[in-house]
Amino acid sequence: MSKNVNIDWANLGFDYIKTDLRYISRWKDGKWDEGQLVEDNMLTISEASTALHYGQQCFEGLKAYRTKEGKIQLFRPDRNANRMIDTCRRILMPEVSVEKFIDACIQVVKANEHFVPPYETGATLYLRPFVIGVGSNIGVKPAPEYIFSVFCIPVGPYFKGGMVPVNFNISEYDRAAPYGTGAAKVGGNYAGSLYPHELAAKKGFADCVYLDPATHTKIEEVGAANFFGITKDNKFVTPKSPSILPSVTKYSLLHIAKEYLKMEVEERDVFIDNLDEFKEAGACGTAAVITPIGGIEYKDKLHVFHSETEVGPVTKELYNTLYGIQRGDVEAPEGWIVEVK
Ligand SMILES: Cc1ncc(COP(=O)(O)O)c(C=O)c1O
């Protein structure tokens, strides 16, 4: 590492820390500029920016991992780049090409290399790319200018004392409309989830499960993560719906379950009335990789899957394989790892 930073790696959480440099690129007159690394972590934008009034903005989240040998690698940044392209199209923002997105991430990681936690700590460097509509505009229409930026923060291992299952309840609120923006990573989806999350937390749940907005009979998301279940005959099952955010972790687990664990996999409806079909369940996403689901409260009854205190064996194996790939201990499928040199 080039510089020493005074960070207590063992006690990192998921909190903002100002790292040294961030990438910023501006779109004006139909094109993105070259982009540059800057020290200033403050943005000055017009009070009439569409990002502030009409939610014309989006974000991504991915991590850089340090391997046992001390190398640094990104996990499937092309998937995040392509998801951001899909999101930008949905809300009429200019696309950031896959190449520009990955180049920006690499520049930010390199410039903040000393913030990439050591392998042994289990901590990682979280990258937050985002696009916002700026410039002065008061009508409900796309912004005249945009900013694409990427910053990074070191974050702690999600499970400090090892993986622990947590419980969820069912939200009576929806996070997305049937043909709305559920599959896009726009901030409005998250603003709408704050209140349901608070209601769940007040009742002692880690977060809530969102059902499909049209019929309220099928599982869509678990907080800000995708759902998966392991059926009693050992199939990996995850919901399919146009209003779910296509999770990079979920699609990676589908591949791992099939190709590494030799399981059958299914992307299909998961009915809330049929939780009994699963022997294990989990929530998956970049932050935790997998959060084992102890139980889901439905109709005033807690449905427990494997156990409220122990992680199921299939969940554990999925986690170990994916986390192993991400930090370079398990051989990755072709194209999943981008080394930061
Ligand atoms: C609503 C929602 N679902 C699922 C996920 C998991 O997606 P990923 O695995 O790409 O982090 C996230 C996190 O990005 C999310 O915000």
Structure notes:
This protein is α+β, with helices and mostly antiparallel strands. 22% of the residues lie in helices and 29% in strands. It is built from 6 helices and 18 strands. The protein has helices spanning 50-53, 77-90, 98-111, 187-202, 248-259, 313-326; strands at residues 22-28, 31-32, 36-38, 57-59, 62-66, 72-75, 124-134, 145-155, 166-170, 207-211, 219-222, 225-231, 235-238, 264-267, 278-285, 289-298, 301-304, 337-339. Strands 1, 2, 3, 4, 5, 6, 7, 8 and 18 form a 9-stranded antiparallel β-sheet that branches. The protein has a 6-stranded mixed beta barrel with strand order 9-10-11-12-15-16. 40% of the residues are buried. Residues 61, 221, 224-226, 245, 247-250, 285-286 line the site of pyridoxal-5'-phosphate (PLP).
How many separate helices?
Answer: 6
CATH topology of the largest domain: D-amino Acid Aminotransferase, Chain A, domain 2
Overall geometry comes to globular
CATH superfamily of the largest domain: D-amino Acid Aminotransferase, subunit A, domain 2
Largest sheet: 9 strands, antiparallel
How far is the N terminus from the C terminus?
13 Å
Helix-residue proportion: 10-25%
* Secondary-structure arrangement, i.e. CATH architecture of the largest domain: Alpha-Beta Barrel
Radius of gyration: 20 Å
The helix/strand class is alpha+beta
Catalytic activity: L-isoleucine + 2-oxoglutarate = (S)-3-methyl-2-oxopentanoate + L-glutamate; L-leucine + 2-oxoglutarate = 4-methyl-2-oxopentanoate + L-glutamate; L-valine + 2-oxoglutarate = 3-methyl-2-oxobutanoate + L-glutamate
Keywords: Amino-acid biosynthesis, Aminotransferase, Branched-chain amino acid biosynthesis, Pyridoxal phosphate, Transferase
Family: Belongs to the class-IV pyridoxal-phosphate-dependent aminotransferase family.
Organism: Clostridium magnum DSM 2767
